[in-house]
Amino acid sequence: MPDSVHTVSNGPDLNPHNLLNVLLHHLEVPAAFVPGSVLFGGVAWWLARRRGWAPMPAVLAGCGLALALSLTVVRPFGHYPAGGLNPLATLRLCAVGSLSLAHLYEQLNVVMLMPFAVCGTLATRRPLPVAASCVLISAFVEFVQGATGGGECQVRDLVHNTAGGVLGVLVAVVGCWLQARRHSRKQHGLTPELGAGSGS
């Protein structure tokens, strides 16, 4: 999330008004999101054609990934202690934090990977790899933030991101199940009529 939320745990929470101000003062987010969507969306479309995925959800999953990375990775460096390229130094800087959904910042961390998770599951119909991808993406984000000093490495953010990703996968799975059930009912409803017509 943007640097201005550093005081969330020690000061006032975000609200929709100052969240808009934060985004307006971080133009690197839309500047990264647009080409990122073209890149990740294009790669997702290419993979969808090769692997038989649903193309539109795959492209939207790529755009969701671009949005998550634009909000978390693309930011000025040095605002926080940086661990550098040494993984052990970066891990030592990671704070555990407390799990909570009381603040808007924490709620946004839960929502962050949900578009990617929902669309990725609808595209591939493979919920477990998509859920695992959410864990890896969140871990990558936290490591980059800790290594560069562009954000604060937080274990709680990893948990929040992963929980939101898993929730998004479950939403997609339920949606696919309901769609399949509706399609099955339609097929069973047409079968008697088709049978009667063929016998006449």
Any overview of this molecule?
- With 200 residues, the protein is mainly α.
- It has one domain.
- It has 8 helices and no strands.
- It has helices at 16-24, 28-51, 55-72, 87-93, 104-111, 114-124, 127-148, 155-199.
- Helix 2 runs antiparallel to helix 3, helix 3 packs antiparallel against helix 6 (114-124) and helix 6 (114-124) packs parallel to helix 8 (155-199).
- Residues 1-12 and 191-200 have low confidence and may be disordered.
Helix fraction, binned, reads over 70%
The total number of structural domains is 1
Record field, number of beta strands:
0
Name the overall outline. globular
Task: Report the oligomer.
Answer: single chain
Query: Helix-strand pattern, N to C?
Result: HHHHHHHH
* Percent of sequence in beta strands: under 5%
Rg over CA atoms, rounded to whole Å, is: 21 Å
**What structural category do the secondary elements indicate?**
mainly alpha
Q: How far from one another are the termini? A: 67 Å
Chain-averaged pLDDT: 83
How many separate helices?
A: 8
